[in-house]
Structures are given as structure tokens and as C-alpha cells.
Write a structure and sequence with these properties.
224 residues; mainly alpha
Length: 224
Amino acid sequence: MLAAIINVQHLVDVAGYPLLFLIVMGESSGVPVPGETALIAGSVLASQGKLQIEIVIAVAATAAIVGDNIGYVIGRKGGRWVLERPGAFHRQRLEVLRIGEPFFEQHGPKAVFLGRFVLALRVWASWLAGATHMRWRVFFLWNALGGITWAFAVGLFAYFLGSSAGNAIETFGFFGLAAVVIAIVSGLLLHRRHRLRSAEGEAQDGLTAPPSGGSHEEPSAPGE
């Protein structure tokens, strides 16, 4: 994976913003090319002063939106035919359509938005949205929001962390990396909370404990 980042980074370094646009657009339209890796590479190059992070983010967001809409049109025009035509995996393809249609009807906006951050959905979500006839206005809105959020989140993350961000995102995925960060922060907070409770408990025990030392006199009987 590191080799892929280095290769894409070299290509983006040589060809600049146009190649970044083409790779991100290609992945978004359904071509299995490393669009997110290209965004990471462009952001790392920006952190080195070779590109400008503002332009990298703008180019990636625009390419994502354009590519997703191309994928939507392809899915709308021919995706259903591809899924329904006889041939290999016909039953499985019909199952995709059977499950996909009600899913996109009920959860389409979330799938389009969150799909931008998941590798398989990033490549195929626009096709499925078109093939299942998701309304284009709804698709365009959530696709645009997802593309812009993705470009900002991944771009800025890679820009501020440099080349190490590429390794982390490629290894864990963006959501996986976020989960790791959340788990670490949660663990630290729970540990701190446990220490505070322990300190409070010790202080409370100190207040309620009987004083040490001194003799304990037995009460004398009447008449003694």
C-alpha cells in the first residue's frame, strides 16, 4: 500500500491538479482507480509546498461530484440492463437489484453521503443509485455534501499529518482510523475518570474513618 501511495504521489507531483481530477473523477464514476490515494498524495505534496491545499481540496471535491453524477447517469441508463440481463451471476445480480431498490428508497441519502468514505461504496454507490432510480435531486444534494466533506476531511487530515497519514488511512480506512482515534481518546477519558473516582473515594474514607490513637473507656456500671 505504501508503494501505491508513493507511485500515485509521484504521478500527481508530475502531472499536478489535472491528474488528481481525472483519478478522483474516474473512481467516482465507477472505474477502480485509487481516487482517495490521489487525494492523500496531493495533500501530502501540499504539505511539502509543492501544491496548494485549497486547490487540492477544491479539485478533489469537484471531481468527486462530477464523477458520481457520471456514474449515476450510467447506472440510470444502463445499470438496470446490466443487472437484469441473462448470463453469469444472473440470480446474484437480480438479488442486488431486489435489495438495492428498497434500500436506496429508504436509506439513499445516508448511503450516498457515507459511501464516499467507504472504498466499495465510493466506486459503486452512484451506479446503484442510478440503477435503482433514486431521485436525481436527492442524489445530487447528498452526493455534493459527501464529496465536499470527504475532500475536506481526508485532505486536511493528510495535509497536517503528512506522509504518515497516507499509511494510516490506507491501512485502516478513514472510518477505521476514526474508530481507532475515538477508542484511544475514550480509553484515556475512562482512565482519568477512574483515577478521579479513586481519589474521591480515598478522600471520603479519610473523612469517615474513626480517629486513631487514644484509649477507649468502657462505661462504668451504676453504683461503682
